Amino acid sequence: MEKSEIARPISTILDGSNYITWANQMKSFLIGRKLWRIVKGDIAKPTKQDKEDDGKFSERLEEWDSKNHQIITWLSNTSIPAIHTQFDAFESAQELWDFLSTRFKSVGLAHYYQLHNNLVNLNQEAGQSVNEYLAVLQPIWTQLDKAKISKDHLRLIKVLMGLPPEYESVRAALLHRSPLTSLDAAIQEILFEEKHNPTTPQFQISDLQSLLNQLISSSSSALAVSSELVFISLSP
Length: 236
What we know:
Blueprint: H1 3-7, H2 19-32, H3 36-40, H4 54-77, H5 81-84, H6 93-104, H7 109-121, H8 130-145, H9 151-162, H10 168-175, H11 183-196, H12 205-214, H13 222-234
Helix pairs in contact: 7-8, 7-9, 9-13
Protein name: Retrotransposon Copia-like N-terminal domain-containing protein
Pfam families: Retrotran_gag_2
């Protein structure tokens, strides 16, 4: 196993909005390493058994501690600093995993943002059959079919998807805000960020209006709007 693989075992870096993708990749990796049961709590921290030799117990405890903290290290190395700086409060991988799940596994705007982002960027891979490709697409379609989200918030998702990295702070704030802000209010925040942050690329109000005009659809279903989002995103 390469040293780089040990330090950062998966390609996805958790930033909050991509929790589902990150969690699935990390879970698959840990299962492959036979470490997932520690995360689930099936293999708990050892306790000294009656008449157990101190040396033997020490070995069992050391082995568990080593695996537990290796998992924590991997979770930390695959998370952005704003997230992994909170990990010091956790001594077990199970507690940390549960914390991340509670914090980010929410069916809100960030969740649908991730679904749309996955859909737009998903391509058939080399050697992958059409049926295998469709099998990856189907769960995303199913979740979007069940989406109870307004058209304005779907349009907001598209606006946020199109913003460059310099707008990450305002994008993250809007995606995780509760209650959700309106489309107009969100755009005002984006324009405020542009005006007060000299490092952000300069957009014009007319540019945002043009983008919104592309998103107007006569269909009210989430899947129809999703298809429109994909078409717009892939158009040159």
